[in-house]
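Researcher: I'd like a structural prediction for the single chain below. Treat it as a standalone chain; there are no partners to consider.
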Amino acid sequence: MPPDKPDTTDRSELEAHMRQFVEEIEAGEDGEPAAATESAAGRPAGTRTTDGGIEQAVRQILIEIGEDPEREGLLRTPERMHKMWLELTCGYRVDPDRLINGAVFDVGYSEMVVIKGIPFYSLCEHHMLPFFGIASVGYLPRGRVIGLSKIPRVVEMYARRLQVQERMTQQIADFLQQRLNPYGVGVVIEAEHLCLAMRGVQKGGATMVTSSVLGTFRTTKETRDEFMAHLARAVPRV
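Model: Treating it as a single chain, here is the predicted structure.
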């Protein structure tokens, strides 16, 4: 068994790589970056140090499954996977305040707001295999609305973590309820899970639907029915 190689990926390069994806989620309206904040450790929010453990672990996995990490096609696989995992889990490092970036507005509007068909990709925490699909989010404002681009960014923040679909659905709803204090919030997610398609019963094409309804979306049937009716309508083609 060959000895473990030292981490060959430059730490500052990795932090810059990770920060790029975090900033894409946190970006302000019109693509302007949000104002920087400092974490408790004194570093810009969304960064962390790395000790090369991911690359060492990937090499060990390759050995355990009977592969040769020194084979030409695998030489840079640990480095590539290191960067990939930082991308796929960058949601842990997103600062919610930077994401919102003041884009909550007092508006005299009290009818339902719905954005549907938001695509996302996440990782199941049980097998670390992808699940992916669409999220639809609605809320009934109590005089405050959030910038349109922020809702897909909230979905992305929670999707880029190790997840279970049920928790992710609830987290999105709770976030909007706490930040906007609307009359109610509804979130519906429909997703396909590769842990179901690629392993176990191997039923590709099966989808899972989860929902979270808070406030009047839970207590008032008419509000809930209106939300579901919006979701049932076909998206107009431009």
